[in-house]
Each structure stands twice: as C-alpha cells, then as structure tokens.
C-alpha cells in the first residue's frame, strides 16, 4: 500500500510534498492533491514536508476511504472526463488536473 493523502489536504495545496517527491507521483486536482498508488515508491520523502499532516504512511493505517479515493483519482473517469487518468508517468508535465474525485467535491459542498 502506498502513501495516502487524506481530507486535511482539501483546500490546502501547499505543494511542499510535490517538491520533494523523487518520482513525481503527487498530482493536483482542483482543491486536493492525490498520490498515484502505482507510481509511488513508498520512500516517505513527502511525509515530513506536509504542513498539515495530510499524508499518511502505509504503516500509519490510512483510512480506507482515502486509500480508495486516491486510487479512484487515477483509476476511474473523473467528472467531465471520458477516460481515467491512469499512470501518467509524473505530475510535472501534466500540470493541475483541475478536477477532484466526487468524494472531495461533495466534501467541499458540505463544509
């Protein structure tokens, strides 16, 4: 299981985690970042850089809700898109995706 970004990242988007990721597996949605579970190498470089403690290590027992949500960002078509993102090979060249998963979008509506 890779590292996971939870609800503490919603509306944060600091980016310190992105700057230290050696494999560029942290992608930006509209209001939250997501770790691609297939690209993450479980190095932990991002963990200590997150200013809001939104990143959870596999050994920290991440909430299954956020494990599924991070995976869904890449595996399922996002709102307004016909296909899933899949493995893009790094976030740098991709830029902000500009859309979040339905869970995060609904979370923002409720807050």
TrEMBL record:
Residue ranges annotated for the 4Fe-4S ferredoxin-type domain, each copy included: 1-30, 31-60
InterPro entries xref list: 4Fe4S_Fe-S-bd, 4Fe4S_Fe_S_CS, 7Fe_ferredoxin, RnfB_subfamily
Pfam families linked to this entry: Fer4
Keyword terms of this UniProt record: 3Fe-4S, 4Fe-4S, Electron transport, Iron, Iron-sulfur, Metal-binding, Transport
Co-factor requirement: [3Fe-4S] cluster; [4Fe-4S] cluster
Molecular function per GO: 3 iron, 4 sulfur cluster binding; 4 iron, 4 sulfur cluster binding; electron transfer activity; metal ion binding
Binding note for cofactor: Binds 1 [3Fe-4S] cluster.
Functional description taken from the UniProt entry: Ferredoxins are iron-sulfur proteins that transfer electrons in a wide variety of metabolic reactions.
Matching PANTHER family: FERREDOXIN, OXIDOREDUCTASE
Protein name from the UniProt record: Ferredoxin
Origin species: Embleya hyalina
Gene: fdxA
